[in-house]
Write a structure and sequence with these properties.
By secondary structure, this protein is mainly beta. It has two domains: about 10-45 and about 70-170, Beta Barrel (Thrombin, subunit H), CATH 2.40.10; about 185-285, Trypsin-like serine proteases (Thrombin, subunit H). Helices cover about 5% and strands about 35% of the residues. The chain has helices at about 40-45, 215-220, 285-295, and strands at about 10, 15, 35, 65, 75-80, 85-90, 95-100, 105-110, 110, 115-120, 135-145, 155-160, 185-190, 205-215, 230-235, 250-255, 260-270, 280-285. It starts with 7 loop residues before the first strand and ends with a helix. About 50% of the residues are buried.
Length: about 300
């Protein structure tokens, strides 16, 4: 049995400010300057000292390019802070609400993003595709749990409703009575983050990777119970396939016949030694937080 891992990688990126309307739709975004959020002290300040050792600069690694509309619930989230604008993933819940990781919208204790933009329906996020919907949100629209590795979840109320189209659809969530762990099923994670540990930028296009969902007992071979609990779900890192910086808050789904894809997790953290080292990635477990999601959205 391997010694429990202590290096944790929260999978966000920092981007520079962009121009856009305060309410409703946004058309122009400046993507020209991108740097990892882990180069900023506040990113590491929320982690305990033993998790701050490997401060390495690190999308979905060793994955595949998606086709337009393959993941209609995928959101590219740009939360704004005083020091810049971040890139994270998100998930379409309803016309007004999206779901993401708390660490994507919380800079520190009680310090929230001042606002931001959610991009739905994107295939290439770097251009304003006609199928895209870019909608603003404000600080007042953010609701989150205590920011710990065990409670890494938030909802965001948009300033205007999105329209459901072929390219924009809500994720399907489990029911409150669903007690499945989903262990053994093939999980799929998607996002716009980095494609390898050596890459210096994020992907303009949606990418995805699939690996088996692990039981929490199997995941505890790699992660200590201090960081992994009933609140979490894990996906194998076999083949170096995992989420990476820029994918935080994005979807982990499984295919359930005949319903289709079911949201079972959202990207929370991975091993700080790198995204392709084969260590299981860790997600907030949707069934655990489902009542919280219902209480803090109009789902």
């Amino acid at each position: 049995m391997e010694v429990a891992r202590v290096g944790v990688l929260l999978l966000g990126l920092l981007e520079v400010h962009f121009s856009g309307a305060e309410d409703g739709n946004v058309t122009e975004i400046d993507w020209s300057k991108v740097r990892p959020i882990e180069s900023f002290d506040h990113y590491w300040a929320r982690l305990p000292p033993e998790l701050q050792m490997p401060r390495r600069a690190r999308l979905v690694t060793n994955g595949f390019a998606a086709v337009p509309g393959q993941f209609p619930y995928q959101v590219a989230l740009l939360p704004e802070f005083l020091i810049g604008t971040g890139l994270c993933g998100g998930i379409v819940l309803t016309n007004f609400y999206i779901l993401t990781a708390a660490h994507c919208v919380v800079q520190g204790v009680g310090v929230l993003a001042t606002g931001g933009t959610a991009i739905m329906g994107a295939y290439d996020r770097s251009i304003a595709e006609s199928e895209q919907q870019r909608i603003r949100f404000t600080k007042d629209g953010i609701t989150y749990t205590a920011v710990t590795l065990r409670n890494d979840i938030a909802t965001i109320l948009l300033n205007a409703p999105m329209s459901f189209t072929v390219r924009v659809q809500p994720a399907r969530l489990p029911t409150l009575s669903d007690t499945r762990t989903f262990a053994g099923l093939s999980g799929t994670v998607s996002g716009f983050g980095r494609t390898s540990d050596s890459s210096t930028g994020t992907s303009n296009f949606v990418r995805y990777a699939s690996n088996p969902i692990l039981s929490n007992n199997d995941c505890l071979t790699y992660w200590t119970p201090i960081y992994l609990g009933a609140e979490n779900i894990c996906m194998s890192g076999a083949g170096g396939r995992s989420p990476c910086f820029g994918d935080s808050g994005g979807p982990l789904t499984v295919s359930i016949v005949p319903q289709g894809r079911l949201l079972v997790g959202l990207v929370s953290f991975g091993d700080a030694a790198g995204c392709t080292v084969g260590i299981p990635s860790v997600y907030a477990r949707i069934t655990y937080f489902l009542q919280w999601i219902l209480d803090n959205s109009d789902y």
